[in-house]
Amino acid sequence: MKPAPEIKLMGIINVTPDSFSDAGLYRDTDAAVDLALRLIADGADILDIGGESTRPYAAPVSVDEELSRVIPVISAIRTLSDIPVSIDTMKAEVAREALSAGATIINDVSALRHDPSMLDLVKNTDVTVIIMHMKGTPGTMQDNPAYTDVVGEIVSFFEERLTWLDSAGVDLERIVIDPGIGFGKTLNHNLLILKHLEKLSSLGQPVLLGHSRKRFLGEITGIDTADRDLVTAVVSSLCREKGVAIMRVHDVAATRYALQVSEAVSQAH
């Protein structure tokens, strides 16, 4: 039994040496492909491939370096499975090459603000596009982030982005929104977002939740990054009925089980 059909599970594959959660473990193409197969076996609906760390204070990488990391992995996965593949990038050239290699989703944490060429790429394709809220850049986002009303400001941000995309001729049915847990937010900001996720759903777009192994979970529990899959699954369960369409997680099986239990409890009568 899988979780409620409206919730898809996105498995994370970081092909980087400096990811916050699994630095370097899957930089090798063979290791990344092995992980992809495990995630598929665990019930992943989508795989998200990233070649540039967006952890706090991460340094950017060149287009060539990012391409050398992700393209072999995407190409190899595509020979083994037809599972939807998302390219996690802010660079239009990387996204373009990834789509050519078999990716079917663009996941841009800058919400198409980093690379002006990204809009043209989006307009000239029909793939799903994920846009995320981030205050600042990965290098600056955790420098004392402040909001008057964090949820309200995120909603306003997406209203602006959606209006902009619509005016540019992009079909909004292709757009998924991500509130950006941990991207320019304090512990309390993240908790408020989780508490009021339904306000994002009111915008009418599918919502992606990317909470897996994030630092705020360690701030609450004291648990090290690599050991946060259980608490990630707890958050997944708590948010099952808050209008989330996609949950982006490292441990697909743990979240799948948590959602199954949560759904069974909610359906009992």
Briefly say what this structure is.
It contains 10 helices and 8 strands. The protein has 269 residues and is an alpha/beta fold.
Give start-end ranges of low-pLDDT stretches: 1-5
Mean pLDDT: 91
According to DSSP, the number of beta strands is 8
Order of helices and strands: EHEHEHEHEHEHHEHHEH
> Structural class of the secondary structure composition?
alpha/beta
Provide the gyration radius in Å.
17 Å
Q: What helical percentage do the residues reach?
A: 40-55%
H/I helix tally: 10
* N-end to C-end Cα span: 19 Å
Describe the global form. globular
- Could you give a short account of the major beta sheet? 8 strands, parallel
Q: Strand order of the main beta sheet, please?
A: 6-5-4-3-2-1-8-7
The percentage of residues in β strands lies in 5-15%
Q: Helices, strands, pairings?
A:
Blueprint: E1 8-14, H1 29-41, E2 46-50, H2 63-80, E3 85-88, H3 92-101, E4 105-108, H4 117-123, E5 128-132, H5 150-167, E6 175-178, H6 187-195, H7 197-201, E7 207-209, H8 215-221, H9 229-238, E8 244-249, H10 252-267
Parallel strand pairs: 1-2, 1-8, 2-3, 3-4, 4-5, 5-6, 7-8
Helix pairs in contact: 1-2, 2-3, 3-4, 9-10
